[in-house]
């Protein structure tokens, strides 16, 4: 795995979705209420619309505002419609407060 630094952990907050552009990849880090931060591709699987610019997160679910697709913020699984999912990247928090991501692998 080729982890690289994404940001400092203090820039992420529980109940928030934070967009990033890293090495040409749109990434959305979602920290669901009561869960752990997760990193997903910033593209909706429907028509590859940008979730970085076209989404809303309420602490539990992420909604693509282009066509209304809804995803579970804890695991990226499709809720509406079912049977789809966001692509997830491995993410880790380091002891020195950094957030690292591996863009070459998917969970």
UniProtKB/TrEMBL annotation:
Pfam families: Rieske. The keyword Phosphoprotein does not apply. Residues 4-100 form the Rieske domain. The keyword rRNA-binding does not apply. Coiled coil: none annotated. One of its GO terms (molecular function) is 2 iron, 2 sulfur cluster binding. Keywords: 2Fe-2S, Iron, Iron-sulfur, Metal-binding. InterPro entries: Rieske_2Fe-2S (IPR017941), Rieske_2Fe-2S_sf (IPR036922). This is Rieske 2Fe-2S domain-containing protein. It comes from Ideonella dechloratans.
